[in-house]
Specification:
- The chain has a domain at 66-199: OB fold (Dihydrolipoamide Acetyltransferase, E2P) (Beta Barrel), CATH 2.40.50.90.
- The protein is built from 6 helices and 7 strands.
- The protein has helices spanning 2-50, 112-123, 152-155, 157-163, 179-192, 196-199; strands at 66-75, 78-83, 90-94, 96-98, 127-131, 143-148, 168-170.
- A 5-stranded mixed β-barrel has the order 1-2-3-6-5. Strands 4-7 form a two-stranded antiparallel ribbon.
C-alpha cells in the first residue's frame, strides 16, 4: 500500500514537472523561431543586396564596385568593412560628405553621436556595395567610396546622410561626381530643419 501511494505521488510530481518543461520548451521554440526569422530576413536582405547592378560611381573609377560587409562603425561617415571576395579589410571614408565628429581627444561635436548611431543602425553587419571615383585613398590611408544599400537615391547612403541632416557637403577634387546632388540634399535638409539643422545652433 505504501509503495502504491509513493508511486502515485511520484506520478503526480512528474506530471507537474512535465507541464513546466513543456512551457519552457515552447518558450525555447519561440526564441528559436524568432532567431530563424531574423536569419531568414538577413539572408533575404543579403540576396537582395548581392543582386544590385548598375550602381553609379565616377566616370573613371579607381576600382571596380566591391561587395563588402560592414564590420564596425568608426563614426557617421567612416566604417570598417570586410570584402566578400576574402581580400583584406579596409577602413572606408564616404565621399562627398562630412558628419560631425564624435568624442576623441576633443569633445564630440553637436549631432556627432546621433550621426554615428544612424550609420550603425543602417549599416552595421550588413552587406553594402562600394563604388568609386577617381581617387581611392586619402592621406589617412582610408578607402574613399560611395556606399549603396539599394538602387536609387534611397539606397545611396552618402546622400541619405546629407538628406536626413546628419552630414554637410564636403567635395574634394577629384572625387566630385555627385557634388551637385549632395549640395542639393544638404540644402533641402537645411530648409526642412532635418537632423542637426534643427538640433544644433
Amino acid at each position: 500500500m505504501i509503495v502504491l501511494l509513493l508511486a502515485l505521488a511520484c506520478t503526480d510530481w512528474f506530471a507537474s514537472t512535465d507541464t513546466g518543461s513543456s512551457t519552457n520548451t515552447d518558450t525555447a521554440s519561440a526564441d528559436t523561431a524568432d532567431s530563424g526569422e531574423d536569419a531568414t530576413e538577413r539572408a533575404a536582405d543579403d540576396a537582395r543586396v548581392r543582386a544590385l547592378t548598375d550602381l553609379p560611381g565616377g566616370e573613371f573609377p579607381c576600382l571596380d564596385p566591391m561587395l563588402v560587409r560592414v564590420a564596425y562603425i568608426t563614426d557617421g561617415d567612416t566604417v570598417y568593412v570586410h570584402p566578400e571576395d576574402g581580400s583584406a579589410g579596409r577602413k572606408v571614408r564616404m565621399i562627398g560628405i562630412d558628419t560631425p565628429e564624435i568624442e576623441h581627444d576633443d569633445p564630440a561635436e553637436c549631432f556627432g553621436e546621433e550621426a554615428m548611431g544612424y550609420t550603425s543602425e543602417a549599416l552595421l553587419e550588413r552587406l553594402v556595395w562600394l563604388t568609386f571615383d577617381s581617387d581611392c585613398i586619402d592621406p589617412y590611408d582610408r578607402t574613399l567610396a560611395y556606399v549603396f544599400r539599394d538602387q536609387g537615391e534611397a539606397g545611396f547612403f552618402n546622400r541619405v546622410l546629407a538628406r536626413q541632416g546628419y552630414a554637410t557637403a564636403l567635395a574634394i577634387d577629384p572625387n566630385t561626381t555627385f557634388e551637385a546632388e549632395i549640395d542639393a540634399d544638404v540644402r533641402e535638409a537645411q530648409r526642412e530643419g532635418a537632423g542637426m539643422w534643427e538640433a544644433c545652433p
